[in-house]
Fold this protein.
Amino acid sequence: MMSSVKVETVVKVGALIGEGPVWEESEQTLLFVDIAGQKIHRWSPTTNQINSVETSDMVGFAVPRRSGGYIAGVGRSIVAVDWPTQAMTSLLEVDGDKPNNRLNDGKVDPIGRLLAGSMGREVRPAVLERQQGSLFSVTSDLTVSKHLSQVDISNGMDWSLDQKTFFYIDSLALTVDAFDYDLTTGHLGNRRVVYRMEEGEGFPDGMTLDLEGRLWVACYNAGRVINIDPTTGVRLRSVSFPVTKITSCCFGGLDFSDLYVTSSSLGLDQSEMTYQVEAGHTFRVTGLGVKGRPPCVFSG
């Protein structure tokens, strides 16, 4: 089965920190951000065209919004993005007492609530003041709740198929964690570790869940995405890439059977760049034999 797996470079933008891929089913396009490049990108596999919007600060994520456009995490602000006009409207700010923080990964839960995490700004990749971050939720009426604090690098998240478990990554902990999740209230409880990164797997970064209930975790600094079973804590397989700084992944394509994988070039020295010419590009993995789910849309 693994022999049919194919990895190809599809979006050749050379992002500083490519992140947060989201497949837009209605448009058949891939939305992703370049955090340090301060851009939101939208790529069409049909035309191979890429359209971009510049942001005023580092952009941690962008997700589709039910009322149109996108919601993005720019600096410490949650902003509304109107794509045709490129206008951005700040809706709210988090971490007001921590001006050196910024928003990082964000994802929408099955009822349309946004979860977004923060972190201290890095001196260089994965080097920062620790325990400065938090995990927040934002409801359709823009009510903000803080669920976790003392987070190092708030990163990947997703929900189980029955919507009762929330999977979460704080990268420097080197684990994938799970919480009991109350979909009605957004309450998190009973935190536990479902997977510990092994030697050579780097830092866990972004992740996504497939229709078999298994997680695909981007391994930053390790050049791979690993597939783990959160119920057993076992790594089932690994997909390798020609670049080391793999950042995140999502399923997409016509039937959500393609895995799109983002990467980073920031922090590579000149010699590393010479043999990682595709660093910062976005990859597509086909032939995995599994499918993902359409992303949820922010209800506000």
Observations:
- The chain has a mean pLDDT of 96.
